[in-house]
Design a protein that fits this description.
This protein has 302 residues and is an alpha+beta fold. The chain has 3 domains: 5-133 and 202-259, 2-Layer Sandwich (Gyrase A, domain 2), CATH 3.30.1360; 135-200; 266-300, no CATH class. It has helices at 5-16, 27-30, 54-62, 72-84, 104-110, 157-181, 192-195, 213-223, 230-246, 248-259, 266-276, 283-286, 290-300; strands at 37-39, 43-51, 95-103, 117-120, 141-143, 151-154, 204-212. Strands 1-2-3-7-4 form a 5-stranded antiparallel sheet. Strands 5-6 form a two-stranded antiparallel sheet.
Length: 302
C-alpha cells in the first residue's frame, strides 16, 4: 500500500480546504494537488505546490504587467519560439514541488540532476519502513550485450524465480538485522545512522523535490526517454501527465521539440543536404564515426 489510511485522510482534508488566491492558478494542476499517483510497487508521486502557468511564461518573456496583453494563439506561438530557440529563462519562472516515494537506487540516479531543491527523509532520525522494490517478473532482464548501461532479454523460468527469491529474502534478512541492531529492549542498540548502512538499495525513501520548469523539462527529456532505466522512467512518465495538465502549451512545445525532436550536428546537416541534392552518402564519406552514422540513420529512417 503506497498510502496509509492516515495519509489518505490528510490528503482528503487538504483537498477539501480550498482558499481564495490572487496568484496565477492552473486548473489543470489543481486537480493533481496532493493526490498520490502510484508508481512501482510501493512508490508514488504527488504534487504539493506549484507556481505559474503558461501565461506566466509569456508574461516573463514580455516582462508585461499582467494577463491578456496578447491572444492565446500568440502566447502559444511565443512559447514555441522560446522552446525552439532554447530561451530557457521564461520557463524558469514556473516551479513545481513534488513529494516522491522511490527506491534508494532510483533516488541516487535521480539526484544526479543537481538543479532542484531536495529534502529527503532522514534515516538518522527516523526508522525506515519495511518496504522494498521487488520487480515484476517481466522487468527482470539480463545485461544488454550492446549497451553497458542497459538491459537485454528478460529472464525466464527457473532463473527468474531464483533471482526474485534472492531479492525478497536478502531484503527481509537485512531489515530483520536492521531492526535488531536498533532495538532498545535489553540492549544498548546501534545508532540509527549506523544501522542503516546494512539496508539494501531497493528500500524505499521519500523526499520533497522542487524544481523550475526549464530544469524539469531537462529531467523529463532524459528520464522519460525510451532508453532510460525502467524504474526511473515510470516516475518521469507519471510527472509528464501532471505537467501536461499544468502547462499544456509549454508541454506541447516540449513534446515537439525535445521528446519528439532530434538534434543534428553540423556534419549530419551537411550529409542531409547532400542527400537532398541526390548525392549518395555513406558512412565513409560522411565524416562521421560509425556510432554517429548509426544514430543519424535512426533519425532519418522512414
Amino acid at each position: 500500500m503506497p498510502l496509509t489510511p492516515e495519509q489518505q485522510a490528510e490528503i482528503d482534508e487538504l483537498r477539501a480546504s480550498a482558499r481564495p488566491t490572487l496568484r496565477a492558478v492552473s486548473e489543470g494542476m489543481e486537480k493533481h494537488l496532493y493526490l498520490a499517483r502510484p508508481v512501482l510497487d510501493h512508490g508514488f508521486v504527488r504534487a504539493i505546490d506549484y507556481m505559474g502557468d503558461d501565461a506566466a511564461i509569456c508574461q516573463a518573456a514580455r516582462v508585461s504587467y499582467g494577463r491578456g496583453t496578447k491572444a492565446v494563439s500568440n502566447d502559444e506561438g511565443l512559447i514555441r519560439y522560446l522552446m525552439r530557440h532554447w530561451h530557457s529563462t521564461p520557463f524558469e519562472m514556473c516551479e513545481l514541488k513534488l513529494h516522491v516515494k522511490l527506491p534508494v537506487f532510483v533516488a541516487r540516479q535521480w539526484i544526479r540532476h543537481r538543479t532542484a531543491n531536495v529534502n529527503e527523509y532522514s534515516a538518522r532520525y527516523s526508522i525506515l519502513d519495511r518496504e522494498f522494490y521487488i520487480p515484476e517478473a517481466d522487468a527482470l532482464a539480463a545485461q544488454s550485450v550492446v549497451n553497458n548501461q542497459g538491459r537485454g532479454e528478460a529472464l525466464s523460468g527457473e532463473e527468474a524465480s531464483r533471482v526474485l527469491e534472492w531479492l525478497k529474502s536478502d531484503a527481509a534478512r537485512s531489515y530483520d538485522h536492521y531492526e535488531e541492531m536498533i532495538s532498545t529492549e535489553g540492549q544498548q542498540g546501534l545508532a540509527r545512522e549506523l544501522a542503516r548502512m546494512n539496508l539494501p538499495a531497493n528500500i524505499y525513501t521519500q523526499w520533497y523535490w522542487k524544481v523550475d520548469l526549464h530544469n524539469l523539462f531537462h529531467f523529463l527529456r532524459l528520464r522519460a526517454d525510451a532508453h532510460a532505466q525502467y524504474e526511473i522512467r515510470v516516475y518521469a512518465e507519471t510527472i509528464c501527465e501532471m505537467v501536461k495538465d499544468w502547462v499544456p502549451s509549454a508541454y506541447r512545445a516540449f513534446e515537439d521539440y525535445r521528446l519528439g525532436g532530434a538534434t543534428l550536428s553540423a556534419s549530419a546537416i551537411d550529409c542531409l543536404r547532400r542527400m537532398l541534392n541526390g548525392e549518395e552518402v555513406t558512412q565513409e564519406t560522411s565524416g562521421m564515426s560509425k556510432g554517429e552514422w548509426r544514430e543519424f540513420q535512426a533519425v532519418i529512417a522512414s
